[in-house]
Amino acid sequence: MKTSLPVELSRLLDAVDDESQRAAWEKFVETHSPLLLNAARSRGGGYDVVMDRYAFVLDRLRDEDFVWLRSYALNPRTSFRTWLAVVACRLCTDHHWSQHRRVNGDESERIREQNAARQHLADAVAGSWEESATLPVSERLARLHRALDSLSHRDRFLLAMRFETDASEGEIAAVMGFRSSRRVRQRLKQVQSALRDDLQRSNPSTTAA
Amino acid sequence: MPKRGEHLNECQAAGYLDGTLDEAEREYAEAHLAVCGECRGEMLSAARLVRFRRTKRFWYLAPPLAVGLVLVVVLLANPGAAIDAAEPLIGLAESGRRVAAMSPEDGAAVGMDDVVLTWSTTEPAVTYEVTVVNVDGQVVWEVSATETQVAVPAGRLRAGRSYAWTVVARFENGDTTQTEARTFVVRR
Q1: Which of A63, A86, A90, A166 is most worth mutating to test chain B (most B CB atoms within 10 A of its CB)?
Q2: With an 8 Å Cβ cutoff, is A186 touching chain B?
């Protein structure tokens, strides 16, 4: 499915001289500034940091004769606004890393957060997993990891959204295409129940019986 | 298209959010999103930017809808109040009373323990009804104040989340006026 280009984007990419390109760029910025500014704000920081980030995003969109925007125009399969929101978030991330060089500590922090999320999931699932309380944490997490591998990609994504991000159920529904937050809750319940069953089955004393 | 290593590219991420990927592309995207925290975070941020705007429209409706509901109840209870009820609405435009949100600035990032909402009016009101809602439009806190400043209790907010707030000023003669909705995000 192809979508048509927004007028302000067409005019910008089709501009034949500097003056019309400048006017088209001003119109483009005027139209999309609210979204780009909100993207810049969403990463936090004071006024100067946000404006610096916003300026970075605009500069990158202009770079190399609007190469990012031209790449969208070549094959516009999604809504321009959604695409621009994704690009804006990515550019804000790039700006963040250009200001704060990524160091090993960040990777360790990421792994710590991931392990904390897995522990949170293990605790959520352990409700009726009878012998979980007697297992060492490392064994509990290892078994959970094996059980997670048996889930579909979509269910694993759902669990990651629930336990490794701060997304509300409504936001999870919006991102993953569920019809409502109630459907998200229902599916989470089913997945957690399936995980518990898998973990019960993996207990040697249960299978021997 | 500019490459981004092994992460989802912009078209894949946007296509997933818009629901325009075919089945194989969607499977691929979900397989990656299940294991990549960076792409998940970016996708959630983008979704909030796009969906957020659509939801935000309803925040403007919440206080006037509440006022409208009260008016309907009053009119049903006392039909003769129709004329009296209409006057404050007419007076609202003619009186020129205004209330404006002052701080924090729209979209500002604030500390969890530092969310102080302030506003100003052209003349003092009897009460100010403050409403704070989350991105889903749910009311997380509301209070009726007599000063032009309130502090949002930290326990009502979550780090990393965005909220919107409005103030409805009620004057002695029954007039009401309200601020435009403003947003803030609580720092992690």
Answers
A1: A86
A2: no
pLDDT of residue A101: 61
Work out the number of other CB atoms within 10 angstroms of the CB of residue B154.
14
Rounded distance, CA A207 to CA A22, Å?
72
**What is the pTM (predicted TM-score) of this model?**
0.60
Which of B11, B114, B163 would best serve as a mutation to test chain A binding (most A beta carbons within 10 A)?
A: B11
Q: Where are the alpha helices (DSSP H) in B2-137?
A: 10-18, 23-33, 37-77, 81-95
Q: How many CB atoms lie within 10 A of CB A158?
A: 23
Helices A7-14, A47-74: axis angle to 10 degrees equals 80
Please write the tens of the pLDDT for every residue from B136-183.
777 888 888 878 888 888 778 888 888 889 898 888 777 788 888 888
Say which of A35, A71, A93 has its CB closest to residue B42.
A93
CA gap B52, A116 in Å, rounded: 28
As separate numbers, helices (DSSP H) first and strands (DSSP E) second, chain B gives: 4, 9
The residues near B54 (Cβ < 8 Å, ≥ 6 apart) are none
Largest separation between any pair of C-alpha atoms in chain B: 71
